[in-house]
Model the fold of this input.
Amino acid sequence: MEAVKKVYLKNYCNFSGRASRSEFWWAFLAQYALSMIFSFFLYILMIIVMVVTDTVSDSDPMAMVGAMMIVFIPMLIFALALFLPMLGVTVRRLHDTGRSGWYYLISLIPIVGFILYYWLALPSDMCENEYGPVPNVEPQPWDNFTTPMPPTQF
Done:
């Protein structure tokens, strides 16, 4: 739940930095589940409207289009609202594997675009890269130690 809150509330349109593998996949799963639930209720609403207005037995195509718009318009708004945070976490996840966010455009190429999912499933670079520090790793007290430690006496 923390990863989903981080993606959709804290980093809504953040394209800089890095996102851990778990952060990306939990956000992906949450968006998929929300989309399925939302579309289920909208399709039920469309069926109710079609039955109540007797659109099913009519052969009027405009009545069918009107009933389908009940589903299409809210789904479009929902998809557009969730597009930017998912794009942001995908770019940050690519940064976490040491790749530029522009690699996201590979997903537009048929068949070859599936390589993007492979990159998103790769483990994080375990060292700081050009996009920032390793995500979800708490700093240790010795990370900021600048003076040399005294030699040990045996």
About this structure: Residues 61-96 form the longest helix (36 residues).
